[in-house]
Amino acid sequence: MAKSKDYFGLGRLVSIILAIIPFTAWICGFLTRFKEGKIIAGLIRLIFGFTIVWVLDLILMILQGKILRLLNC
Predict the structure, then answer these.
(1) What is the Cα–Cα distance from 37 to 30, expressed in whole angstroms?
(2) Cα separation of 67 and 49, whole Å?
(3) If both were cysteines, with which of 25, 42, 46, 72 could 33 make a disulfide (CB 3.0 to 4.6 Å apart)?
(4) Angle between the N-to-C axes of helices 52-64 and 39-48, in degrees from 0 to 180, rounded to the nearest 10
(5) Could you tell me where the DSSP H helices lie in 1-73?
(6) How far is residue 21's CA from residue 15's CA, in Å, rounded to a whole number?
(7) In the predicted model, is pLDDT for residue 1 greater than 60?
(8) Are 11 and 37 contacting, i.e. CB atoms less than 8 angstroms apart?
(9) Using CB atoms within 10 A of its CB, is residue 54 exposed (0-12), middle (13-18) or buried (19+)?
(10) How far apart are CA 10 and CA 20, in angstroms?
(11) Residues 6+ apart with CB under 8 A from 39
């Protein structure tokens, strides 16, 4: 099984399961950004992670195997 870029390098199926559950998607989303050193993106995910960002993450994780990148810098 191909490895996913997001959610700490976990497999795609595990990442999709984590993305389906809003609480784990929120935690994994901002922890992944903080781990990458993207503090602003992590804070945005921390604040807005339960809204539309969660739905977009879920759709993108299922279709592409990676979560939404709000800020690439």
Answers:
(1) 11
(2) 12
(3) 42
(4) 110
(5) 12-20, 22-35, 39-48, 52-64
(6) 10
(7) no
(8) no
(9) buried
(10) 15
(11) 33
- What element of type H or E holds 4? none
Rounded to 5 degrees, φ, ψ at 52 are -60, -25
pLDDT in tens, 12-29: 888 888 888 888 888 888
Angle of CA points 55, 46, 48, to nearest 5°: 45
If one counts every other C-beta atom within 10 angstroms of the C-beta of residue 1, the result is 7
